[in-house]
Design brief:
This protein is of the alpha+beta class and 203 residues long. It is 13% helix and 33% strand. The relative contact order is 0.28.
Length: 203
């Protein structure tokens, strides 16, 4: 499997990090080794002093596809989830300043949390899904898929022009504003349409 991530897909998050609004989706990939095993705590890596949480709505690809038209993209996924794109922000900032790739800041071991999957038939409108992230039982991020610059079917069409999509691939669709630093003993939990889909303790 591959983990395909979309950056800068919510205007408020672009603004909070003072980034330029993109004219096309920003795409990066996390290796499968970045997946945090179920029931395992997240350990802050020794190379970063500023790891941020970024909650995102996820879609699991169910079949092989290439050059997918947006009008057919909905046939390539049946399951929706929620996860965290952990980011070593200090390292990412340094890499960006030098014009270098982000992988070390985004793809390190444990940097991808994937929660429980739900059938897409559970939801009436995939472009109107509310989600949030709590840190120590207080909401720190909240968003709605209706606020994405590019909706999921557009993203699948776009990504599939560059990468063949395969069964089991996961698409992270971007994070809203409210990202922030984690510290040891923090407890994070994420909910989609008021249903908790993951929780993780920080070490």
């Amino acid at each position: 499997m591959k983990i395909i991530c979309i950056g800068r897909n919510y205007t408020d998050h672009i603004a909070e990090l003072k980034n330029e609004k993109p004219t096309e989706p920003v795409v990066f990939i996390k290796p499968d080794s970045s997946l945090l095993p179920k029931e395992q705590d997240f350990y802050i890596p020794e190379f970063s002093n500023d790891v941020h949480y970024e909650v995102e709505v996820l879609f699991k690809i169910k079949k092989v596809g290439k050059h997918i038209k947006a009008s057919f993209a909905h046939t390539y996924y049946d399951e929706i989830g929620l996860g965290i794109d952990f980011t070593a922000r200090d390292l990412q900032t340094t890499l960006k300043e030098k014009g270098l790739p982000w992988e070390k800041a985004k793809g390190f071991d444990g940097a991808a949390v994937i929660g429980e999957w739900l059938p897409k038939t559970n939801f009436k409108d995939l472009n109107d899904l509310s989600f949030d992230l709590k840190k120590n039982n207080e909401i720190v991020q909240s968003g709605n898929t209706g606020l994405m610059l590019w909706k999921v079917d557009e993203l699948i069409a776009y990504v599939s022009t560059f990468f063949m999509l395969k069964k089991g691939d996961v698409l992270f669709t971007g994070t809203p504003a409210g990202v922030g630093k984690v510290a040891a003993n923090d407890y994070l939990s994420g909910s989609l349409e008021n249903k908790e889909l993951f929780n993780v303790r920080i070490k």
